[in-house]
Amino acid sequence: MNITKVAIYPSYENLVIALDVAAKGVSSIIDFSGTIYVSAKVDYDKERKTLKLHNISYRRDLDNVFLSYLTWVAYRPLQRMLTKGFEFDWAEQEIKLLQEVNKQLSFSGDRGLQLQGRLDKLNFSEVVLQEDNLFLYVYTEGLVTATLK
Question: How far apart are alpha carbons 65 and 69 in whole angstroms?
Answer without folding.
Answer: 6
